[in-house]
Design goal:
By secondary structure, the protein is of the alpha+beta class. Helices cover 31% and strands 25% of the residues. It is built from 2 helices and 6 strands. A 6-stranded antiparallel sheet has the order 1-2-6-5-4-3, covered by helices on one side. It is elongated. It starts with 8 loop residues before the first helix and ends with a strand.
């Protein structure tokens, strides 16, 4: 007999863990969809809020670290984490907000985000 179907303490405990896991995953998915408009299983949200404005994903292919540094105009530093806990990097030559953000999605793979004109 399956431990989940078993009666008694062990079966109740396993069923409780299963129910809690499903609830946690469901609530995380709802949270990410509601606030960040991205499902939990993607590392490429459509837009990111940073520095008082919105950055939208550029319609360009993924770039390498050297291409990202060239586009940004210098070295990249982590400035925040994406909703799915991946690092977001940017180049800050001054106190102004950067034009581009780069979300790291692989070993040397970045997704480009461009500041929107609000």
């Amino acid at each position: 007999m399956s431990p989940i179907l078993a009666s008694g303490r062990a079966g109740n405990f396993l069923r409780s863990l299963l129910i809690i896991a499903v609830l946690v995953l469901t609530m995380r998915t709802v949270y990410l969809l509601w606030f960040f408009h991205t499902p939990a299983w993607t590392s490429r949200p459509h837009d990111i809020r940073y520095c008082g404005g919105w950055y939208e994903r550029a319609d360009t292919p993924d770039v390498t670290g050297s291409q990202a540094r060239r586009t940004a105009g210098g070295d990249l530093k982590a400035v925040m984490r994406s909703p799915v806990l991946r690092p977001i990097t940017a180049h800050h030559p001054s106190s102004a907000c950067p034009q581009y953000l780069f979300a790291k999605v692989g070993k040397d793979v970045y997704v480009t985000y461009r500041a929107t004109d609000d």
